[in-house]
Each structure stands twice: as C-alpha cells, then as structure tokens.
Amino acid sequence: MTSRNMILVLLAGFPILFTAQGASAYDWYECRSNKQTWDSNNVTFRPSSVSFPSGSAWRTSVEAMRTAWNTAPGTQFDFAYSYSSSSTYSTDDDTNSILITNTYNYNGALAVARLSFKWCLWPFWGGKLKEADVLFNPAYSWENSVNPTFPPNPWSPYNSTLVGIHELGHAFGLGHEDDEMATMNSIYPNSGSLGQDNDLVPHGDDVHGNRAGYGTSGTARDLYASTYLRSSAGNSRYITAPSTLYRSPTSFQFSMGNRGTLNETSVGVKFYLSTDRNITSSDYLVGSAGFSMDQGATVTRTVSITASSSIPAGTYFFGWIVDPENYIAEADEGNNSVALTSPTVLVNQTPPNACFTQSTSNGSPPLTVFFNAACSSDPDGSIVSYTWDMGDGTIRSGSSFSHTYWNSGFYTIQLTVRDNHNLTGTKFSWVEVHGGCEEWIVPTTGGGAASKEASTGNAALPCQPL
Ligand SMILES: [Zn+2]
Prior knowledge:
CATH topology of the largest domain: Collagenase (Catalytic Domain)
Oligomer: single chain
Largest sheet: 7 strands, mixed
Strand order of the largest sheet: 5-4-6-8-7-1-11
Bound molecules: zinc ion
Distance between the termini: 80 Å
CATH superfamily of the largest domain: Collagenase (Catalytic Domain)
Number of helices: 4
Structural class: mainly beta
Shape: elongated
Number of domains: 3
Helix content: under 10%
C-alpha cells in the first residue's frame, strides 16, 4: 500500500521551524480533522536487542520509555514490546523498529521517529498510522538514567529516556507542542523532569493529548512540581532563584502541572526554604497559595515571600510542595515537591524602602513641583543618601526640594535611596507638563515668570501657540 512518510526530529539545543500550532495544547497530525491514531490501542514495537542488549543500561531506558506512557494517568494506549535480533530497519516493512543506527541522515537530530500513514481519504482510509520507526543517533553521547540525580540539562550527555519518551509520543501520533510546557517540545530537554526524584515521564499536556486520541480510562489524579519554565517557543530552562534574599518581600518563580483526568479547582501549594534540595514539611515555611489547574495544564507562577527573622541567615534552596496536605488522592504522590536547582543566600540586612510625595503631577510650564522623600525608611539602619533622576536630564540629591520643569513633556522621576549597608531601594513617579505651546520662553529680564505674568495681568501663562 502506498504510504506517505513523515520524519519527526528532536534537535539538540537549537530551534527548528515548525508550523505554528493552536494556542491551546498538544498537537496531532490530522486527516480531515480526524486524529491520525493507530487503529488499535495496543501496538507492538520491536526494539533491537543488538542496540539494547538484555541487562544493559540502554535496555532499562528503553523499557522506561514505554512504561512512562503505558502508566500515564487515565490513558488507554499501550506499547507492547517484542525484542528483535535485527540491527537494521526498513521504513516500509510494517515493522515498528526501535534501534540505534548510523544508517540514517539525522541532520543533527538526537533521534527521529519515522512515521508512515495510510492515505488520507477519510472515511475510507482515514490516514491512520501504519508504521513507526524510532531511531537514535549514535553520534551523540548518551546517558541512560531513568531517575537522574539532577534535572536533565540542555547539554551533552543527552538522556535517552527523556528523548525516547518524546519519540514514542510521535510514534502513537503526537506532533510537536511548542506553545505549552510538554515532553513533546521540539528542543531538548523539552520541559524536563518532574518532582525532586527527576521523574522522566510525559507532562500533563502530553498525557492529555494521548487521552484525546485514544480515550480516557477512569479517573486518575496527578499533580506535580517542576523546576523548569518555558523560555521561548519549544524551549525550556531551569527556573533561576534570586541570588540574594533580604528580609523583605522577594519574588520567586515556580512551575506545577496536572497530569490527571480532572480539572482541579482547589490545589494548595506551600513554599519552603531548605538547606538541601529535598523539600519536606519540616523545612522553613515561607508562604502558601491556592490555584485551580485544568487537566493538561502546566503553569509557571510567581510568589512573593518574606523570610522572617526566625530563619537564620545562610544558603537555602527555594522549594514547594503541591497539595501538601494530601487532600487529593493521586496516582503518583512522589512528584509533588521540588526545589530550584540554584541556591539563594539569605542575609540579615534589609534594603531601604524608597518613598516620596510630590506637590503635583501635572500642570502648565513652568511647573514647579515640591518633592519630599521623608516617608522613605530603612528597617534595620538609616538612609545615607537620596539620588533623584528628574527625567529632564537633571540629577539632584537631598531628601526634599523644589524642581521646575520649563518645557511641556512627560517626565519619569526615579528616586534611589541608599542605606548604611550599601543596599538600595528605588521608586518611580511621573510629572506631565502640558501647554498649548511647544516652548516656554524664559524671561531674560524683569525678575522671571511671576513678574511677567503680573505685568500682562493675565492669570494664564503667556505662551503663544505655534
Ligand atoms: Zn520530535
């Protein structure tokens, strides 16, 4: 039978141009709006026992790839394996091969899934999947861990389990998903691992996509925490922690997701500072929040925390636990906590708060405004300097003064206060100077604007429209 072939590649570290996908989520190849699935929910693949010898680390990794999909919450599709002694493959032999081979031009890809579909003549052939071959590129350096000790990074060696889960996603019909966090993202490390054991499993969006193609089996709930964020289309990176944490509100980013079959309407999250990357409820609690998360969602959010004086200064990892009270019975309770990969140094000093008032924020030129920074403060010391960028090219100092804006315009004022620990705080404000003329002529004689105004007997300033 005639087939058309599609080659799906996973690239190492550089972007690939693919047609932009819908704003929502997982992407399927479609035949007249019908998802191009296999005809069956159980498809046999034939991994090569030459590439993946029994007892080898590669064998363990290849097994973990299919287990990751076969045990995904609420899914019905299963990969069956029947190991083959062959070390070659053919793209049109109706055998679904999985192997490491150098007889393919990868064009820089880590691995490829070569798919064959039946002709798209819905409803006659329906464009269903006909064959899928998954090939790994031996030109790269691979490591085969199933639960790596650290989240996979974008550099060599590449994790075969993570790449294999991605390729098996193609092998049952998913395309690249670059709009949301997903294992089907087109660039390694995709969206990384889940939880503090660095589980290599498909993300919420991928599992949701599987269920969309092959149906949902029962109810399964699974929330997870992740240290990655989506940095650009199809690309992800570790969330970075602020390097210094003062005794004042500081923003941290965190990610979490929902692999389950339900839209969760009430998900609690607690935030901690821990001396190691293993987060437990006995670490220093620094905040909590609640969220709703639809099935398939992965979100990155920001929380502002303040480290109280009861937490000693030192080096900490910021972490969080999703559903910390275990209100939600989950298929996997082991992926709910995680800590950022980079540490934060908590110090005892607190930066000053910049604050000022101004007598007015708009008027006609010349507009004289009185600025007063007496409301600025420093909780653990004193303010030693005030520096003002007046927005008109003038830099001023001092805690209070009057400043005149001679020309119409929109001025941004920035006050920077510095304390005795050499920490700074800033505050912005604005002044808008309007008028019917473009320029105010500064009187050169006669005592300035006030006397000129008086001499004309006109309360309005005597500027002429141009
Ligand atoms: Zn791919």
